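Entry:
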Amino acid sequence: MSCKRQNLNPPEWDPPAPSTVYIKIKNIPYETFKTRLNEGLVTTELDQIRYRLEKRIYSCGICSKCVNGYCVITNRKVEPGWICKSFVPKEEFIYIDARPGSEISPEFRYLSETGIRKNCLEGESPEEGGQKSAESLYEEGVNLYRQGRLRLALEAFDTILSGNLQHFPALFHKGNTLLKLKRYEEALETFESASRINPDHPGLWTNIGFVLVKLERFKQALEAFERSISLNPVQKNAWDGKDIVLVRIRQCEEELKESEKALERNPEAARIWFEKGKLHLRLGELEKSREAFEKALEGKIENAEAWNLRGKVLFEIGSEKEALHAFEKATRQKPDFPEAWYEKGRVFLKLGNPKGAENAFKIAANLWESKGFKAQAEMARSKIKKPGFGEK
């Protein structure tokens, strides 16, 4: 009996793991949590939960199991500052401000997949109405994101950003939404905009890392994960991402060694030079990548993909006119090559030719649509819809 009583009386401070709290709040299976974790979609909320536990913001006093000062699990009177493994916050305290005293905490709730009820904003004074309309729309967007209605969520975040480009939470969630929609280039652009506003947000750098992995820019991904870890060393997502990308980098380096051995036997092999160029590009070695693609094109001029990748490298290093020439070569050799048309549109924009850009983006969108790649088609069309498109 005494053993049983001891089990029912946990230590005064025996908190659950942040992941346990997250799973209980979301009411999801562990496997769903693992999937979200691997996709980099829960880092922000886990960080907030961890902070609330460490600072004892989460405690028996706001636990859903605590009724009139008694714990319904242990059937004993508890102190507000205690906590046990069964803790689940009451709904109204789930998103309690986690960083009191922080100058950014009143504005930014980093709720990567959650929001508060819209009716929480009812009854506000007229003076606050204009201020809170963006907040209300933001919460609506987050709720749509939670429900998987990603395109509607994206519209909500875009509406907020049309009035305030500095709204960090909307940028953060827009990036997450684009990531889920597999519109990786746009997600990266959005996260980069967010990083210029708040460069010290660890969850943001974790998500940047995962986008860069998707784009096969492994060295840059490694830098993003390392930056995230330097800002918050207890992020499992960032450590997992770093492990993944280190494996990819090692694979690239091993494949490079093999390609160099193959080139010793056959120095003019265009295909090997082409593959070598792709490996250097994944490792962020742009000059070596450019040289390899040039060697590949010496041996085999009719290689639209090589021209396209060479153009991407040239665009990255700031040689826009040479990049445009490369993309034109790619689209002449392969007119139904949507990636090359899309990149061509980006170069036209950079060179101040909005008409050429619009035409290229439309062709890319139509080609992607015809091939069944709707996300990419939306990405191309979104370029034309951006505010200020075509203005000189």
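The chain has 18 helices and three strands.
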